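Appendix B. Extra example for self-study. Work through it before the problem class; the solution is given directly after the inputs so you can check yourself.
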Amino acid sequence: MLWDTAGQEEFDAITKAYYRGAQACVLVFSTTDRESFKAIPAWKQKVVTEVGDIPTVLVQNKIDLLDDSCIKNEEAEALAKKLKVRFYRASVKEDLNVSEVFKYLADKYLQKLKQQTAEDSEVLHISSNKIGVFNTAGGSHSNQNSSTLNGGDVINLKPNKQRTKKNRSPFSNCSIP
Ligand SMILES: Nc1nc2c(ncn2[C@@H]2O[C@H](COP(=O)(O)OP(=O)(O)OP(=O)(O)O)[C@@H](O)[C@H]2O)c(=O)[nH]1
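Solution. C-alpha coordinates for the complete assembly:
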Protein backbone atom coordinates (compact mmCIF):
# COMPACT_ATOMS: atom_id res chain seq x y z
CA MET A 1 0.00 0.00 0.00
CA LEU A 2 1.49 3.37 -0.98
CA TRP A 3 0.75 6.65 0.73
CA ASP A 4 1.64 9.82 -1.15
CA THR A 5 1.84 12.55 1.48
CA ALA A 6 1.48 16.24 0.74
CA GLY A 7 4.88 17.96 0.80
CA GLN A 8 3.60 21.25 2.17
CA GLU A 9 4.43 21.98 5.79
CA GLU A 10 0.92 23.13 6.68
CA PHE A 11 -0.20 19.49 6.36
CA ASP A 12 2.51 18.20 8.72
CA ALA A 13 0.17 17.19 11.53
CA ILE A 14 -2.09 15.27 9.14
CA THR A 15 0.62 13.57 7.06
CA LYS A 16 2.32 12.24 10.19
CA ALA A 17 -0.71 10.06 10.77
CA TYR A 18 -0.30 8.62 7.25
CA TYR A 19 3.32 7.55 7.52
CA ARG A 20 3.07 6.33 11.12
CA GLY A 21 3.61 2.57 10.94
CA ALA A 22 5.24 2.72 7.50
CA GLN A 23 7.70 -0.02 6.62
CA ALA A 24 9.57 1.74 3.83
CA CYS A 25 10.02 5.29 2.63
CA VAL A 26 10.64 7.05 -0.70
CA LEU A 27 11.97 10.59 -0.35
CA VAL A 28 11.35 12.36 -3.67
CA PHE A 29 12.53 15.71 -4.89
CA SER A 30 12.03 17.32 -8.26
CA THR A 31 14.86 18.08 -10.69
CA THR A 32 13.27 21.48 -11.33
CA ASP A 33 12.38 22.43 -7.75
CA ARG A 34 15.31 23.28 -5.48
CA GLU A 35 13.04 23.77 -2.47
CA SER A 36 11.92 20.14 -2.70
CA PHE A 37 15.60 19.11 -2.62
CA LYS A 38 16.36 21.32 0.37
CA ALA A 39 13.40 19.87 2.28
CA ILE A 40 14.70 16.28 2.06
CA PRO A 41 16.82 16.16 5.29
CA ALA A 42 13.91 17.50 7.34
CA TRP A 43 11.58 14.89 5.80
CA LYS A 44 14.03 12.10 6.57
CA GLN A 45 14.21 13.30 10.18
CA LYS A 46 10.43 13.44 10.47
CA VAL A 47 10.10 9.87 9.26
CA VAL A 48 12.86 8.61 11.57
CA THR A 49 11.23 10.36 14.54
CA GLU A 50 7.88 8.80 13.77
CA VAL A 51 8.79 5.27 12.63
CA GLY A 52 12.51 4.76 13.25
CA ASP A 53 15.09 3.59 10.75
CA ILE A 54 13.06 1.96 7.94
CA PRO A 55 14.31 1.05 4.43
CA THR A 56 14.53 4.40 2.63
CA VAL A 57 15.57 5.69 -0.80
CA LEU A 58 16.23 9.13 -2.17
CA VAL A 59 14.71 9.75 -5.61
CA GLN A 60 15.39 12.58 -7.99
CA ASN A 61 12.28 12.68 -10.16
CA LYS A 62 11.72 14.42 -13.52
CA ILE A 63 15.10 13.60 -15.00
CA ASP A 64 13.45 14.04 -18.39
CA LEU A 65 13.79 17.74 -17.52
CA LEU A 66 17.56 17.63 -16.82
CA ASP A 67 18.10 20.67 -19.07
CA ASP A 68 16.14 22.75 -16.55
CA SER A 69 17.83 21.19 -13.54
CA CYS A 70 18.55 23.29 -10.49
CA ILE A 71 20.44 20.56 -8.61
CA LYS A 72 23.97 19.41 -9.42
CA ASN A 73 24.56 15.67 -9.67
CA GLU A 74 27.24 15.78 -6.97
CA GLU A 75 24.91 17.59 -4.59
CA ALA A 76 22.24 14.92 -4.88
CA GLU A 77 24.78 12.11 -4.52
CA ALA A 78 26.37 13.79 -1.50
CA LEU A 79 22.98 14.11 0.16
CA ALA A 80 22.22 10.41 -0.37
CA LYS A 81 25.60 9.56 1.14
CA LYS A 82 25.01 11.86 4.10
CA LEU A 83 21.58 10.35 4.75
CA LYS A 84 22.98 6.82 4.18
CA VAL A 85 20.29 5.91 1.66
CA ARG A 86 20.38 4.57 -1.91
CA PHE A 87 19.93 7.18 -4.61
CA TYR A 88 17.85 6.80 -7.80
CA ARG A 89 17.31 9.17 -10.68
CA ALA A 90 13.87 8.61 -12.15
CA SER A 91 11.22 9.95 -14.42
CA VAL A 92 7.67 9.03 -13.67
CA LYS A 93 6.65 10.58 -16.97
CA GLU A 94 9.06 8.40 -18.97
CA ASP A 95 8.64 5.40 -16.64
CA LEU A 96 12.37 5.37 -15.85
CA ASN A 97 13.58 3.62 -12.68
CA VAL A 98 10.15 3.62 -11.03
CA SER A 99 9.73 -0.12 -10.52
CA GLU A 100 13.43 -0.39 -9.55
CA VAL A 101 12.79 1.88 -6.56
CA PHE A 102 9.97 -0.25 -5.26
CA LYS A 103 11.74 -3.52 -5.98
CA TYR A 104 14.76 -2.36 -3.98
CA LEU A 105 12.57 -1.29 -1.05
CA ALA A 106 10.56 -4.52 -1.09
CA ASP A 107 13.82 -6.55 -1.04
CA LYS A 108 15.24 -4.45 1.77
CA TYR A 109 12.05 -4.79 3.79
CA LEU A 110 11.98 -8.58 3.35
CA GLN A 111 15.63 -8.81 4.40
CA LYS A 112 14.87 -6.81 7.53
CA LEU A 113 11.82 -8.94 8.27
CA LYS A 114 13.83 -12.18 7.94
CA GLN A 115 16.56 -10.81 10.19
CA GLN A 116 13.98 -9.70 12.75
CA THR A 117 12.25 -13.11 12.67
CA ALA A 118 15.60 -14.86 13.16
CA GLU A 119 16.45 -12.57 16.08
CA ASP A 120 13.01 -13.08 17.65
CA SER A 121 13.28 -16.86 17.52
CA GLU A 122 16.77 -16.60 19.03
CA VAL A 123 15.39 -14.54 21.94
CA LEU A 124 12.53 -17.02 22.35
CA HIS A 125 15.00 -19.91 22.42
CA ILE A 126 17.19 -18.24 25.05
CA SER A 127 14.28 -17.16 27.25
CA SER A 128 12.56 -20.57 27.03
CA ASN A 129 15.70 -22.07 28.56
CA LYS A 130 15.40 -19.65 31.43
CA ILE A 131 11.74 -20.07 32.33
CA GLY A 132 11.54 -21.13 35.97
CA VAL A 133 9.47 -24.11 37.11
CA PHE A 134 6.71 -22.98 39.39
CA ASN A 135 6.15 -25.65 42.00
CA THR A 136 2.80 -25.16 43.67
CA ALA A 137 2.69 -28.62 45.24
CA GLY A 138 4.43 -27.45 48.40
CA GLY A 139 4.98 -31.10 49.24
CA SER A 140 7.90 -33.40 48.85
CA HIS A 141 9.71 -31.10 46.38
CA SER A 142 9.39 -27.98 48.46
CA ASN A 143 12.71 -28.42 50.22
CA GLN A 144 14.53 -29.61 47.15
CA ASN A 145 17.46 -27.67 45.82
CA SER A 146 16.46 -25.54 42.79
CA SER A 147 18.88 -27.31 40.48
CA THR A 148 17.44 -30.79 41.23
CA LEU A 149 14.02 -30.36 39.60
CA ASN A 150 13.84 -30.64 35.83
CA GLY A 151 17.43 -29.40 35.76
CA GLY A 152 16.31 -25.76 36.01
CA ASP A 153 15.27 -23.04 38.44
CA VAL A 154 12.39 -23.92 40.75
CA ILE A 155 10.28 -21.30 42.47
CA ASN A 156 8.19 -22.74 45.25
CA LEU A 157 4.76 -21.17 45.65
CA LYS A 158 3.11 -21.70 49.04
CA PRO A 159 -0.32 -20.52 50.11
CA ASN A 160 -0.30 -17.64 52.56
CA LYS A 161 -1.48 -19.37 55.76
CA GLN A 162 -2.49 -16.21 57.63
CA ARG A 163 -4.89 -14.98 54.96
CA THR A 164 -6.51 -18.29 54.15
CA LYS A 165 -7.15 -19.03 57.84
CA LYS A 166 -8.84 -15.72 58.57
CA ASN A 167 -11.53 -15.11 55.99
CA ARG A 168 -12.44 -18.51 54.69
CA SER A 169 -15.85 -17.32 53.53
CA PRO A 170 -16.10 -14.15 51.51
CA PHE A 171 -19.56 -13.56 53.13
CA SER A 172 -18.52 -13.96 56.76
CA ASN A 173 -18.95 -10.27 57.49
CA CYS A 174 -22.29 -9.88 55.73
CA SER A 175 -25.63 -10.10 57.41
CA ILE A 176 -29.22 -9.41 56.37
CA PRO A 177 -31.02 -7.19 58.91
N1 LIG B 1 8.16 16.17 -16.76
C1 LIG B 1 7.76 15.44 -15.73
N2 LIG B 1 6.68 15.82 -15.01
C2 LIG B 1 6.29 15.06 -13.97
C3 LIG B 1 7.00 13.88 -13.59
N3 LIG B 1 6.38 13.35 -12.50
C4 LIG B 1 5.35 14.16 -12.20
N4 LIG B 1 5.29 15.20 -13.08
C5 LIG B 1 4.35 16.30 -13.11
O1 LIG B 1 4.63 17.12 -11.98
C6 LIG B 1 3.43 17.70 -11.45
C7 LIG B 1 3.31 17.43 -9.97
O2 LIG B 1 3.11 16.04 -9.75
P1 LIG B 1 2.50 15.51 -8.43
O3 LIG B 1 2.44 14.01 -8.51
O4 LIG B 1 1.23 16.22 -8.10
O5 LIG B 1 3.63 15.96 -7.41
P2 LIG B 1 3.60 15.92 -5.82
O6 LIG B 1 4.98 16.07 -5.35
O7 LIG B 1 2.87 14.70 -5.36
O8 LIG B 1 2.82 17.22 -5.45
P3 LIG B 1 1.88 17.45 -4.15
O9 LIG B 1 0.73 16.53 -4.35
O10 LIG B 1 1.56 18.90 -4.25
O11 LIG B 1 2.70 17.10 -2.95
C8 LIG B 1 2.30 17.10 -12.29
O12 LIG B 1 1.95 18.03 -13.28
C9 LIG B 1 2.92 15.85 -12.94
O13 LIG B 1 2.35 15.55 -14.16
C10 LIG B 1 8.13 13.50 -14.38
O14 LIG B 1 8.82 12.51 -14.14
N5 LIG B 1 8.47 14.33 -15.41
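Self-check: The pocket of guanosine-5'-triphosphate is lined by residues 4, 6-7, 61-62, 64-65, 91-93 (CB under 6 Å). If your reasoning did not lead you there, revisit section 3.
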